[in-house]
Amino acid sequence: xxxxxxxxxxxxxxxxxxxxxxxxxxxxxxxxxxxxxxxxxxxxxxxxxxxxxxxxxxxxxxxxxxxxxxxxxxxxxxxxxxxxxxxxxxxxxxxxxxxxxxxxxxxxxxxxxxxxxxxxxxxxxxxxxxx
Amino acid sequence: xxxxxxxxxxxxxxxxxxxxxxxxxxxxxxxxxxxxxxxxxxxxxxxxxxxxxxxxxxxxxxxxxxxxxxxxxxxxxxxxxxxxxxxxxxxxxxxxxxxxxxxxxxxxxxxxxxxxxxxxxxxxx
Lengths: 131, 125
Hints:
Helix content of chain A: 10-25%
Order of helices and strands of chain A: EHHEEEE
Structural class of chain A: alpha+beta
CATH class of chain B: Alpha Beta
Strand content of chain A: 35-45%
Helix content of chain B: 25-40%
Number of strands of chain A: 5
Low-confidence stretches of chain B: none
Oligomer: heterodimer
Strand content of chain B: 25-35%
Largest sheet of chain B: 5 strands, antiparallel
CATH topology of chain A: Thiol Ester Dehydrase, Chain A
Distance between the termini of chain B: 8 Å
Number of strands of chain B: 5
Mean pLDDT of chain B: 94
CATH class of chain A: Alpha Beta
Distance between the termini of chain A: 18 Å
CATH topology of chain B: Thiol Ester Dehydrase, Chain A
Strand order of the largest sheet of chain A: 1-3-4-5-2
Number of domains of chain B: 1
Largest sheet of chain A: 5 strands, antiparallel
CATH superfamily of chain B: Hotdog Thioesterase
Number of helices of chain B: 4
């Protein structure tokens, strides 16, 4: 079994890995089941799926994690919205880490592209790492 | 010039949280395991912060032309947890100093801010 990724495992500036998956019918149906499937909300769905894909990439690549991490802050730049069927390639890197008030803050960046290398999103998560 | 975003509300059940865990592949026991969560300082399961964020996307989509969500910058902080069964409302107001920027929030039924930040719409007219 791989050791849990602790705060000390991360080095700012390093690539952590990448993950690729399509915006498939299952993801769309799951989003619709939660938030509705109205025509008006379709842009919200696509934007929400960018966040979901960002989280999925992070969780697939940055593993195993200690239990109890806290998502403290989220920055998200949307450059283009992925369409149904698009394959989204996400790259994850550590951009910063620091201890503030005794808490271990870790900043990770996830950058998403489509199959034609068109930029889709850049998400920056500030996480309070549990160990 | 639109001053306020159309508000969007949702009551978030444990079932909703479990479904969002499937959407994001995030099965952190703090979200999906009531027994685990009860033994933590949280005391109960909480929703993923990014679940609530979807209501801000909906508030924007229902307020503006759909193409505006193609290009934006979001910066938000997760201030307080949303417990399973809680009702939240998303909204926002135009920043008087920047016509392209809206201060956005998620509040609970008591009016406490759970999420606060801003969204800058790159192509707002």
